[in-house]
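Need the bound structure for iron/sulfur cluster, inputs here:
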Amino acid sequence: MKLLTPLIARSRVKSPWVYCANSGSCNGCDIEIAAALSPRYDAEQTGALRQGSPKHADILIVTGPVTLRAGAAIRDIYDQMPSPKAVVAVGSCPASGGVFSGSPTVEAPLGDIIPVDVYVPGCPPRPQEILRGVIQAAGKLNDKDREREEEQS
Ligand code: SF4
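Answer from helper R.:
Posting the output first, comments after.
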């Protein structure tokens, strides 16, 4: 297995599998994510592939301000993902609540719910920025793999 570890780490950076979760967004960011994953912006040229299950995902993309109903679901989705994993917060909503900031229906910024690796600012951010965030997160997966190996050795 040790022999395969560098290959697995490299394939993850080359081809991270992505799971998208909406934590109560207005859908503006989700539309931009759909565009980023469409043939026009072609996330697959970076190796990123959208997955239907968090159990198969390396990167979690979260939109929205994390409403009271969504908080537990986001924690659950994150816990289901295998390690190493990375989280990309898309838009100003998961970073600070954005336009929903101060609403009694918002639980907390995403960073207080699960660890966030990359913030992509904007309301909504452009598809190119979202792709850049995914590529950054893929690079972090490698760092996490290395840290984990060092801890184990
Ligand atoms: S950041 Fe803007 S576009 Fe994205 S979910 Fe929040 S309000 Fe909507």
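Comments: The chain has one domain: 5-145. The chain has a mean pLDDT of 91.
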